[in-house]
Known about the structure:
disordered N terminus; Alpha-Beta Plaits; Ubiquitin-like (UB roll); four-stranded mixed β-sheet
Amino acid sequence: MCDCTSYRVNEKRIHRPKGRDVMNHKSKLLTTFLILILLSAGLSYAYFSIKVPDNTNKTKEKLSGLTKLDYPGSIPWNGLKQTNISSANPTKINSRTEILYRTLYQCGHGETHQISAPPEMIGLSRDELAKQIEPWSITEFSEDQVILFQKRQGISPICLQNMHIGEKDGWVTVFYGTPDNRCRPKSTTRIRISGLPPGELDDLKAGIRVSDEEELLHILEALASWADG
């Protein structure tokens, strides 16, 4: 016995499936359609994977290459790291640092003295020290040595503490400083060197060192007597 209802259309007999068969038929069509879509997507992906080059690795190579770039005036990456470290840890004075003071006077001579870093300087950086030592300027700064420099008017104290007798422009002259480190003239006498014996002339050219004003006057009197005689 047939499980379908028969109809006569244009005098031809057709069969209409019942509801369950209709649902099964639709499910098969849907399943087939989904399978076709998945196959199409898979084929498309495979096609483009072969045709389109993979630029990921090339991009990574380019980016990695940027770190290796070098051009005039550029700073290496490791140099930048070192600079950052140096900036974060500036050189500072410690208990072993030697402080060297250099003073240049108007006469052209100077004096230098050296001390160990005093407690108030320990731990200071170059910029911090510069703010505390005016009018001194820093010409060298390291953990081993710091050199401070200053210009001053007048004659060096060392020159003021010493004097000697020499000659200038044909006259016996008294100078500040020592014979081997002659400074400015202190005074010019009225004694002409032309009237002095050869031995005294040699002494004047070499420089006659005196220790005080009394010795200076005694030697000048002797030279004057030689010149007058």
